[in-house]
Amino acid sequence: MTIELYAVVTREPCFFIRMLAKHIGVELELKALEYDKDGRLPAEYAKISPLMKIPAINDDGFILYESTAICYYLLNKYAPVSPLYPKEVEKCALVDQMLCTVSSFVQPVASFHIRGSIVKRKKLTGNALRTFEETVLHPLEQLVGDNAFAVGDSLTVADIRLVSSMACFVPLPIVDKTKFIKLVSYYERIRALIPSFHEACGWMLEERSKDWETYE
């Protein structure tokens, strides 16, 4: 049975679920959504997600939204013994902590800066760039530290979630690759371990990088 995924293909929570599903062998049927000129999703989508949250899934009549909830559902139902989600209590708690940190801090704060720049078609410079570095890049670099992986010594769902969010800004010129060496190194290393990375978001990153060069 193929699971229907309702997603805006350029949004990072949707990257996350597409990468995760592919990694654990779950087939998704993409139901691509688009925002209108006023930034609204189609009104009928409220039947799937009353709060108009993306992504959402329909698994044979079972509907679920919020990317973290979808993540847990897919792992528990389709990959209950996957190394992506450790069974050791402390490691599991650390993975959960990272998932919560990305959804409650990294994603919204980074999106505030990046989406604002995209809407205005203006590059982050001066004080805006310094604020982005102080509120997003420095905390993220501290979060990943010197470790090869977010939790433990192997790839977990925490890494996939981190990279899906970082993909929206690390490749852009606003990230000084010589200043945030650990962060960029982590991103490049983990990205290479996710075979579905390009399918989920690589194409968009190439387009966004080109588009970014046209900003004021």
Automatic annotation (TrEMBL):
InterPro entries: Glutathione-S-Trfase_C-like, Glutathione-S-Trfase_C_sf, Glutathione_S-Trfase, Glutathione_S-Trfase_N, GST_C, Thioredoxin-like_sf. GO terms for biological process: glutathione metabolic process. Gene3D superfamilies: 1.20.1050.10, Glutaredoxin (3.40.30.10). SUPFAM superfamilies: GST C-terminal domain-like, Thioredoxin-like. Residues 88-212 form the GST C-terminal domain. It holds the Pfam family GST_N. GO terms for molecular function: glutathione transferase activity. Residues 1-82 form the GST N-terminal domain. Keywords: Transferase. PROSITE patterns: GST_CTER (PS50405), GST_NTER (PS50404). Homodimer. PANTHER family: GLUTATHIONE S TRANSFERASE D10, ISOFORM A-RELATED (PTHR43969:SF9). This is Putative glutathione s-transferase fat body overexpressed.
